[in-house]
Design brief:
Helices cover about 65% and strands about 5% of the residues. By secondary structure, it is mainly alpha-helical.
Length: about 1000
């Protein structure tokens, strides 16, 4: 007779909640639901009910459970959940998941392609990958992920759950989690989510007496009326309304014969006051006594290993052969004490976590400690074969057996390995545990590692506090060298978080410890961190003119003595940083420090832009070589991204950026992938591919915010603002700039681009040249006070053109700009060459001026908006000084801006044409059918109708009849066509019409 209920009793509200949540998930309205309650209160029963209902709806179900052994296994519930779904079916094949497959392979290693160690995904990247997987699985009917016992979860799993909670609302996904009301990260997360109204939380209360009676009847397969009163009173009094305890105590009554079936009725054979087990511990002790001694020993040993245990480890501890061990396990399975773990064929699990706890509690304290020591010694003998999970188990057994220092050493060793593998959150837990157990002589080293783990987990304030608490060590000693490395690693984390003051403080501390002549490898790491720190904007800087303002004295930094001194000082400091980076790269390669070498070459590539992009690319090629030689996939992608960015800036060609994105995507590296997306979006904006730019931004901007990829997120927001600016959409621009500011954009290195590439263009498209120049001046003022390597801010292109047109700059100023690396960029080249043409025209060499414009326009076909805006700006000077083809330029620009819906510039072009004394065509229906070379010549839709018929060489009367117009009107159209196309006579015009018709066909 079983002692389990076949139905859920007393949870009507909870089951209704689950039904509604499943309905929502099937309608793409995702939810997160959590059941909180004590052990045995019925959380797993509700999870099982949810799975049953989901299967009935044909909804995919992923189910995982955290371990209750105290072991820290990153992503354990998630690994189990994915395995439960895909072990038999294999990895998902939906192409939408291609960018996320490598990240998911960290949870299911069998999905990893090739032998490469792969990319160490951040927690948020893994979370985003999991979210995309769940979304794909739920496309048709919705999807359910069930995560049990979250109170035992690792830090990384909690972070992923938080991410899913915050982003599941519009996805076809139900997240159902369970946990005990124990203080900890899981409970804090659930309470916070409930307060933010992004999750539904239900606390499960004990069953009432009537519900206990109903459950008892279900277990006994009878009606409540037929349950003996004595049995009901005992269970209601002893179980406290806990369903699990009801079943355990009922099983004890059945096993002991105190409850038996007599005929068709149940009979109780003891009074309520009879000597019976007073709790679950005594109940399990009595059940255990009924097994043979070998089975009993195996179960006690297994319970010592935890509520879930590995057969391999159990065999190492017991020393039993396969046949004997599995025979004993089979007996325990048949008695419903343990069951095979469906997620792992090597594991078994106790039917309930309380079972293992009760079995261990049935032993005397000395016996428990002795059993733990024996198990730990058995594992120590095979420690070289154990993984991190088993080593943690050994440490837990050592602690239970009284060997605190041995446990501390094991926890610390595993924690350091997890830190090296990128699982910094789990490393924090283990190193903190080791610190509390360690011998006084080991505390310092463990605390140093713990501080680094906190820093790399994003908990910089905690890391800084721990570093400040460390006891002093003798300068220039081995301990000082180790402490110095700790400060350097925390400093790098601070630089990545743009915490300049904290980074500088850690660098000072490291240098103080290492002395004036630190070991070369430490000096190299310090130089790299200091170099990257020098590129960050300072926390305090001179007050900047607001966008649209010029400095108060109306002079620009390069024209002032203080500006010149500032630039000279910056140049000296930059050269010192560059020299230090070169030394660091050489030392790192010599001492086999490939990560430091990549960091150094990356720094050199940025600094070398001042000397030209060839030198910068050479540094990046070296970085790429080091990364490939040492199998550093992250740094390889970083090098490819930067090489692609340089190529895009120099030529406008995004092909190499696309290659870099493919490499990042194939690696599953979401952070560099989003970085490339930002560059591709900006490239698409500059190329006038506005729909493509919008698609890229929408693809990545929200995801970059979710995974806290701040650099890429800011750049994508800037690209969005620039897109609005280049389309002449002021309201969209204002909204985009608000988002950019909220993301800290105006405290970042992107300020010059915001002013020059975004705001200045918006002003020009509103025909406000004064405002555009003010924005460009503000951008230059910012760059004069901060190191900047963004060469698209207008300083090297648009600003010289505007100043030349306004008569503010001459040949000398233009020559100075042409000598800078920024002048090599294709975008800037267009504006600089137009400025050169304006100067040649002003100097009287009109033929050369026209030739320069033709060449500049021909080379700038990739940038339609910049090309036509440049023509519109240069046309005014050409008209005034009578050189070039300003009428044709204005017609071409007018047509472009009219089609783009940018009316202020289109109207200005029409005004310029009228000023030149030429006719301005009306934009009637059929304008879009006219070939570009005819539109730019000013051919109107009505004239084009006449032109098309000329291919057949008809007479004026025939044309008049065909178009229902007068012959005189045809004559006027013919005269206008001859003038606008430059053809000498009617025959030539007819031949030209036939050519155009052939091209169209």
């Amino acid at each position: 007779m079983r002692a389990t209920s076949s139905v859920i009793v007393g949870r009507v509200a909870e089951t209704c909640l689950l039904g509604n949540a499943l309905d929502d998930a099937s309608r793409r309205s995702g939810r997160a639901v959590f059941f909180v309650g004590d052990a045995g209160i019925g959380k797993s029963r509700l999870v099982g009910e949810c799975a049953y209902r989901a299967y009935a709806r044909d909804m995919p179900v992923l189910r995982g459970r955290a371990t209750s052994t105290g072991l820290v296994v990153p992503f354990r519930p998630l690994i189990e959940a994915l395995s439960s779904r895909f072990r038999a079916a294999g990895p998902p094949t939906d192409p939408e998941l291609d960018p996320y497959r490598p990240a998911l392979a960290r949870l299911v290693p069998e999905w990893r392609q090739g032998s490469s160690p792969g990319y160490p995904e951040t927690v948020v990247e893994l979370a985003e990958a999991l979210l995309r997987l769940l979304s794909v699985l739920g496309k048709e009917h919705g999807c359910v992920i069930l995560l049990e016992d979250l109170h035992d979860s690792d830090t990384e799993t909690i972070a992923v759950v938080e991410y899913v909670i915050d982003n599941v609302a519009e996805l076809p996904v139900l997240l159902l989690g369970t946990l005990r009301p124990e203080p900890g990260a899981a409970l804090d997360l659930v309470r916070s989510a409930e307060q933010r109204q992004v999750a539904t939380v239900r606390e499960l209360t004990p069953l009432g007496e009537a519900e206990v009676l109903e459950m008892t009847a279900s277990c006994l397969e009878t009606t409540p009326k037929e349950v003996p009163q004595a049995t009901h009173e005992r269970l209601a009094g002893r179980a406290g309304g806990n369903p699990y305890l009801v079943e355990v105590l009922l099983a004890d009554l059945l096993d002991s014969g105190q409850l038996r079936r007599s005929g068709d009725r149940w009979q109780a054979y003891c009074s309520p006051d009879a000597a019976v087990p007073t709790g679950v511990v005594r109940s399990w002790a009595r059940r255990l006594d009924r097994f043979d001694a070998p089975v009993r020993e195996v179960l006690l040993c297994a319970a010592t290993l935890g509520s879930q245990f590995s057969v391999t480890v159990l065999q190492a501890v017991t020393g039993l052969d396969d046949r004997t061990l599995f025979s004993h396990l089979r007996s325990a399975v048949e008695a419903s004490i343990i069951a095979p773990d469906g997620a792992d064929p090597d594991r078994y699990t106790f039917r309930h976590a309380l079972t293992a706890e009760a079995l261990v509690a049935s032993l005397a304290p000395a016996e428990r400690a002795a059993m733990a020591r024996g198990a730990a010694h058995s594992l120590e003998a095979v420690a070289h074969e154990l993984g991190d999970e088993q080593l943690q188990l050994m440490a837990s057994l050592q602690m239970a057996g009284g060997d605190r220092h041995g446990a501390a050493r094991q926890f610390a060793a595993v924690g350091r390995r997890m830190l090296a593998a990128g699982a910094s959150g789990s490393a924090v837990i283990l190193l903190d545990r080791a610190r509390s157990l360690a011998h006084a002589s080991d505390v310092r080293a463990v605390t140093e590692a713990l501080a680094v783990a906190h820093a790399e987990a994003g908990e910089l304030d905690t890391a800084l506090a721990l570093a400040a608490e460390l006891p002093p060590v003798p300068a220039r000693s081995q301990a000082a060298e180790q402490r110095g490395e700790t400060h350097v690693r925390i400093a790098w984390a601070a630089v990545m978080a743009e915490r300049t003051e904290e980074a500088a403080g850690q660098i000072r501390a490291a240098r103080s410890l290492l002395g004036a002549a630190p070991p070369p490898e430490r000096e190299a790491a310090l130089d790299v961190v200091e170099g990257h720190l020098a590129l960050l904007p300072g926390q305090s800087r001179p007050e900047q003119p607001r966008p649209g303002q010029t400095p108060p004295d109306q002079s620009l930094p390069e024209q002032s003595q203080s500006g010149q001194e500032s630039r000279e000082k910056a140049a000296r400091e930059g050269e010192a940083v560059r020299d230090a980076a070169r030394r660091a790269a050489a030392v790192a390669e010599e001492r086999n420090l490939p990560v430091v070498a990549c960091q150094a070459w990356q720094l050199l590539a940025l600094l070398s832009r001042e000397h030209g992009f060839d030198e910068a690319d050479s540094c990046l090629e070296r970085m790429l070589s080091v990364a490939e030689q040492h199998a550093l996939p992250v740094w390889r992608v970083e090098a490819l991204v930067r090489l692609g960015a340089n190529t895009f800036m120099r030529t406008g060609d995004p092909a190499r950026l696309e290659t870099a994105r493919t490499a990042a995507e194939s690696l599953g590296a979401l952070v560099p992938t989003q970085t490339v997306d930002g560059l591709l979006a900006m490239n698409a904006v500059m190329r006038g591919e506005w729909d493509g730019a919008q698609e890229i931004i929408e693809r990545s901007v929200a995801a970059s915010a979710r995974i806290r990829n701040l650099g890429a997120h800011r750049y994508l927001l800037l690209a969005s603002a620039t897109l609005a600016a280049h389309r002449g959409r002021r309201r969209d621009l204002d909204r985009a700039l608000v988002r950019f500011r909220r993301a800290g954009g105006e405290e970042s290195l992107l300020v010059p681009l915001q002013l020059g590439l975004c705001r200045a263009f918006a002003a020009l498209l509103e025909e406000d040249r004064g405002q555009a120049l003010a924005d460009l001046d503000a951008s230059l003022a910012w760059e004069s006070e901060h190191p900047s390597f963004f060469y698209l801010s207008g300083r090297h292109g648009l600003r010289p053109l505007l100043r030349t047109i306004e008569g503010l700059d001459g040949r000398a100023e233009l020559a100075a700009v042409l000598g800078s690396p920024g002048a090599d960029l294709a975008w800037n080249q267009l504006f600089l060459r137009l400025a050169d043409a304006v100067l040649w025209g002003r100097e009287g060499d009109t033929e050369r001026a026209a030739r320069v414009v033709r060449s500049a326009v021909a080379d700038a076909t990739a940038f339609p908006l910049a090309r036509h805006l440049g023509l519109r700006l240069a046309a005014g000077a050409a008209l005034a000084e009578k050189w070039g083809e300003p009428v044709a330029w204005l017609r071409a620009a007018e047509e472009y801006f009219y089609a783009a819906g940018i009316q202020p510039v289109a109207a200005a072009c029409r005004a310029g044409l009228r000023q030149a004394g030429v006719s301005v065509g009306q934009h009637r229906g059929g304008w879009d059918r006219i070939p570009a070379r005819l539109r730019t010549s000013g051919v109107t839709p009505r004239e084009y109708e006449v032109f098309v018929l000329l291919a057949e060489r008809p007479g004026n009367q025939q044309i008049a009849r065909r178009l229902s117009i007068s012959p005189r009107t045809v004559e006027k159209h013919m005269a206008s066509l001859l003038s606008k196309t430059g053809r000498s006579d009617r025959a030539a015009l007819c031949e030209f019409s036939a050519e155009c018709a052939a091209e169209h066909d």
